[in-house]
């Protein structure tokens, strides 16, 4: 780990309200490569940092449709093509009997897509991340709220960004090595 | 919002006032991280573990000798295995109801009981899944139930409810596991950051998968959680419906009725909430969690039990009414056999346990009284087990031809397998309480007044 590189500047707040307000101001000031960390989900926060649409619903929809098609096609193929069994002269493609398994596989595929899609879009699992280098970041899973401006942001400069963050009245400002 | 509610019309708060993010986090995580393993836990786990060994012994002997060691025979081929299967899987339903359906209905009181209710679902479904597999006679061929390409060029019969059941139960287990696990991720991150022990830090850290609470992550997480709840809701209703199809599609008198699906689902939730209460009442006492699992939770769970119990009672009444009114002599005989046949005591006991005694829940004092609730829950669990016994055994023992009537007597191996699964369930619960946060920490934080973002 090279100590010379800086991943970003992090500010610590003590309530969801102050974090959301700070995130709004930071985004409005023109910083785009920012993120915020909190121990609870805060609906307003994603909006405040300019994150409006997430891809999870689409992934789940695709998963569900795939499960539905796979479920029905499998039963249709098995009972009409591969292994036809005549039950009292009823049609081989006896679709009402295939609904239950089709339904179950729709739910199964959609559910798996929801969980693994969410993890993949979040880039998890990711055991190492530069923000963990900040000792106080351990409180992000307890009762503290953090805002970070990444050093890759075009507006980032060590001195002016620090001055900007100080204007937001955080509890602490920390440099994130990474 | 919560503050106002507490101040005005609600009887008891969901979470006692005075808690903050820090106290909630410390209180729940310290149970796992710093509280020493108590003697009570060791004794409880020891007994449960011993019973699990009884289960392993019974299963081993079954593998050696075959299902002949059980009391099943023709005409009663289903016996204890299916009774216990339906009983356990029904218990699991309350966990999903609490975690998914109550989430969609915005019943925020669920936040303090959903975690261990979901764990209960997983362990109950695991116990349930054992029975049909052991009942197959050659359990090592259980994978034949799944469609896979094989040299026999043979496939499962998808027109059979028994195959539907395989898909319903395995989907249910998978989705319950995923739901439980993604609910745990933020809390595992909390444990990772709080634990002093290096090994614990590494294990919780790996399970948390690097969760850091980013706003983008939370947004996707909340969407996925909500969608999963939306998917689990029809799923949980479908599972016991499909279980009831195992019976309703057959032509045995007492099984062949259209009332089975709704009545099975209501019965499942009934017994499930009884199990939730039987677990919650000692847990809140022993671990001092009365602040989080309040009288409100006991009262609400008791009301769900009362409501589903009345639906079950309606089911019994309609079943008996249709047996009499339908004019089918075999159905009419089934009713007579339940009331006067060799197993009549089980039918009367089930009516008492499921219909008569739970009427005490109309009284508010009893709904908030832990000991009374515990006893009524035990009574409901026994009653619901008897219900499945009556449905499976009493229907099968005397169907159409007098010449094929018979009796069913469970053997010691039946009892050992049944009690053994209770041990396995409890052993898993004990381990869960010791190594994972039994109450969802982040969802408790959300309930606090300070979680609210105040407008500027």
Task: Please estimate the helix content of chain A.
Answer: 40-55%
Give, in spatial order, the strands making up the sheet with the most strands of chain A: 2-3-1-4
Known CATH architecture of the largest domain in chain A: 2-Layer Sandwich
Taken from the alpha-carbon principal axes, the silhouette of chain A is rod-shaped
Fraction of residues in β-strands of chain A: 5-15%
Decide which structural class fits the backbone of chain A: alpha+beta
Instruction: Tell me the count of domains of chain B.
Output: 1
Largest sheet of chain A: 4 strands, antiparallel
The secondary structure category of chain B is mainly alpha
- Note poorly predicted spans of chain A: none
Order of helices and strands of chain A: EHEHHHEHE
* CATH topology call of the largest domain in chain A: Alpha-Beta Plaits
Please report the distance between the alpha carbons of the first and last residues of chain A. 7 Å
Summed up, the helix count of chain B is 16
The level 1 CATH classification of chain B is: Mainly Alpha
Shape assignment of chain B = globular
Task: Provide a descriptive summary of the structure in words.
The complex is a heterodimer of chains A (178) and B (456). Chain A folds into 2 domains: 6-39 and 142-177, 2-Layer Sandwich (Alpha-Beta Plaits); 56-121, no CATH class. In chain A, 47% of the residues lie in helices and 13% in strands. Chain A has 5 helices and 4 strands, in the order E-H-E-H-H-H-E-H-E. Chain B has one domain: Formate dehydrogenase/DMSO reductase fold, CATH 1.20.1630.10. Helices cover 70% and strands 0% of the residues of chain B. Chain B has helices spanning 2-7, 21-33, 39-65, 79-104, 114-135, 161-194, 198-208, 215-248, 260-286, 295-325, 329-340, 344-356, 364-367, 370-397, 412-435, 441-447. The two termini of chain B are 17 Å apart. Chains A and B meet through helix 1, strand 2, helix 2, helix 3 and helix 4 of A and helix 2, helix 6, helix 8 and helix 16 of B.
């Amino acid at each position: 780990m090279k100590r010379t590189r800086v991943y970003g500047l992090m500010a610590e707040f003590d309530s969801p309200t102050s974090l959301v307000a700070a995130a709004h101001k930071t985004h409005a000031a023109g910083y785009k490569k920012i993120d915020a960390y909190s121990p609870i989900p805060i609906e307003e926060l994603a909006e405040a940092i300019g994150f409006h649409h997430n891809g999870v619903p689409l992934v789940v929809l695709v998963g569900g449709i795939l499960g539905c098609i796979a479920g029905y096609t499998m039963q249709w193929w098995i009972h009409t093509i591969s292994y036809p069994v005549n039950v009292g002269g009823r049609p081989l493609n006896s679709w009402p009997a295939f609904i239950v398994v089709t339904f179950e596989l729709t739910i199964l595929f959609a559910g798996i897509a929801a969980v693994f899609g969410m993890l993949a879009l979040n880039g998890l699992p990711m055991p190492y991340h530069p923000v963990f280098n900040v000792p106080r970041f351990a409180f992000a899973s307890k009762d503290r709220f953090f805002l970070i401006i990444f050093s890759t942001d075009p507006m980032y400069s060590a001195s002016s960004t620090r001055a900007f963050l100080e204007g937001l009245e955080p509890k602490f400002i920390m440099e994130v090595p990474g | 919002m919560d503050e106002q509610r507490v101040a005005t019309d609600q009887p008891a708060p969901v979470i006692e006032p005075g808690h903050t993010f820090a106290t909630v986090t410390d209180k729940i995580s310290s149970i796992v991280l710093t509280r020493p393993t108590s003697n009570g836990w060791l004794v409880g786990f020891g007994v449960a573990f011993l019973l699990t060994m009884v289960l392993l012994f019974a299963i081993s002997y079954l593998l050696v000798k075959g299902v002949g060691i059980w009391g099943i025979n023709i005409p009663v081929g289903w016996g204890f295995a299916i009774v216990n299967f339906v009983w356990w899987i029904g218990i699991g339903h309350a966990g999903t109801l609490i975690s998914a359906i109550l989430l969609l209905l915005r019943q925020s009181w669920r936040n303090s009981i959903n975690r261990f209710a979901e764990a209960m679902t997983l362990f109950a479904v695991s116990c349930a899944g054992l029975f049909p597999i052991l009942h197959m006679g050659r359990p090592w061929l259980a994978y034949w139930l799944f469609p896979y390409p094989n040299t026999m060029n043979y496939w499962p019969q998808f027109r059979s409810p028994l195959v539907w059941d395989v898909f319903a139960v395995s989907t249910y287990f998978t989705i319950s596991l995923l739901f439980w696990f993604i609910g745990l991720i933020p809390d595992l991150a909390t444990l990772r950051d709080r634990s002093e022990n290096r090994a614990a830090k590494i294990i919780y850290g790996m399970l948390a998968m690097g969760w850091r609470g980013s706003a983008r992550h939370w947004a996707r997480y909340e969407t996925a959680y909500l969608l999963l709840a939306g998917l689990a809701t029809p799923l949980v209703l479908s599972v016991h419906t499909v279980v009831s199809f195992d019976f309703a599609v057959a032509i045995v008198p007492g099984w062949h009725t259209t009332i089975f699906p709704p009545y099975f689902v209501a019965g499942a939730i009934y017994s499930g909430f009884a199990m939730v209460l039987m677990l919650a009442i000692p847990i809140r006492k022993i671990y001092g969690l009365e602040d989080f699992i309040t009288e409100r939770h006991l009262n609400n769970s008791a009301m769900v039990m009362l409501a589903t119990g009345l639906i079950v009672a309606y089911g019994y009444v309609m079943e008996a009414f249709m047996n009499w009114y339908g004019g089918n002599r075999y159905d009419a005989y089934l009713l007579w056999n339940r009331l006067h046949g060799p197993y009549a005591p089980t039918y009367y006991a089930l009516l008492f346990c499921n219909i008569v005694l739970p009427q005490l829940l109309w009284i508010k004092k009893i709904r908030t009284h832990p000991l009374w609730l515990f006893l009524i829950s035990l009574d409901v669990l026994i009653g619901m087990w008897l219900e499945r016994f009556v449905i499976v055994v009493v229907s099968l023992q005397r169907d159409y031809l007098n010449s094929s009537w018979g009796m069913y007597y469970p053997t010691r191996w039946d009892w050992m397998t049944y009690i053994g699964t209770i041990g396995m369930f409890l052993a898993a619960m004990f381990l869960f309480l010791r190594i994972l946060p039994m109450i969802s920490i982040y969802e408790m934080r959300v309930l606090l007044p300070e979680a609210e973002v105040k407008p500027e």
